[in-house]
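Weekly structure sync, notes
Attendees: PL (lead), two postdocs, one rotation student
Agenda item 3: pending single-chain targets
PL asked that the sequence for the first pending target be pasted directly into the notes so everyone works from the same version. It is reproduced below exactly as submitted, 314 residues in total.
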Amino acid sequence: GALIIEGSLDKTRLEQAFHQLIVRHEALRTRFDMVDGEVIQRIESGVAFNVEHVQASEEETQQYAQDFVRAFDLAQAPLLRVQLVETGLERHVMLYDMHHIISDGVTEGIIVQEFSQLYEGKELPPLRIQYKDYAVWQHADMQSERLREQESYWLNTMAGDIPALDMPMDFARPAVQRLEGARLEFAISLEDSEQLKQLAAQTGSTLYMVLLAAYSTLLHKYSGQEDIIVGTPIAGRPHAELEGLVGVFLNTLAIRNYPAGDKTFLDYLQEVKEHALNAYEHQEYPFEELVEKLNLTRDTSRNALFDTMFELKT
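Predicted structure, written out during the meeting:
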C-alpha cells in the first residue's frame, strides 16, 4: 500500500509509531520455520526494524513503488517493511508491504488506523488476546460439535460430482495454471446502480446476493452449465475481540448454485439468497479442510473446487 502524507512530518515519530505497532501485535514479530516437515510460527520478543528514507521526484516515485515490492524471507521477522519517499517540501509517500501470511485486508486498515493514532501520540487500549490465541482456539475447536456440524453442511453441499467450469476459450487450457491476466474496468450508471439496490430491498436480499445471482447467471449463459460453484472471500472475524487483531482471519466460501433456463431470475435470486445465508452461517469451517476432506483429484491447470471468484467491495 501507499499513503500520501502532506504537511510537516516527524520522521523519528513515524518510525517510533511502527515500533509501537510491532510491540503491540505479535503477528508483526512472527516468523516461520520448518520442523519435521511442518510449518511452525515463532514469535520473537523483539525485532530489528527501521524505516528507509529516500528522496525522489514525483516521476520517480512509481519506480520506487515497483522496486519496493520484493520477496520476504519467512524465517526473518518482521514480515513488514516501510519506506518513506520524500517527493518535495512537506510531501511524502509512505510505502508499506506485509506478507499475506501475517495479514489480510482488514489488517491493512488496522495498521493504517493505529499507525495514525500512535503517530498523533494517542494511547491505544491493550489487546486482550493475540493471534496465537485465535490459532490455538481454531485448532481446538475443529473437534467441537459446532465445527463438526459445519463440516457436515459443507460435505453435503459438495456431495456428488464437483463441476468444473467449462467456459468457451480461444486457446487450449495450459497443463499448469498461470496467473498472469488482464484487468477490465467498466462503470454502470447511477440509475442502474439504484435499481439494483431497489431489487435487493424488494426481495429481502443484499446487493451482494443480487450481483452474485447475476454473475452466476452470466457464467451459466456462457457455459451452458446448471451447476456452478463460485468462490468468495469472507473476513472470518465473527467475534468482536478479533476485529482489532493483526493476522490472517480471511476464509474462502465456495457457494454452489444451480442456474437454469426454466427459472425466473427472481426465483433464482431467492435460491442464491438461501445458499449465501447458509454459507455465512457455516463460515468458520476452513476452506483448506474442506478441500482435504473432499479428496479432490488435483488438476494443475485449475484451482481446487472452483474456477472463479466473486468479491464485492463497498
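Discussion points:
- The chain has a mean pLDDT of 93.
- The radius of gyration is 23 Å.
Action: rotation student to compare against the earlier draft before next sync.
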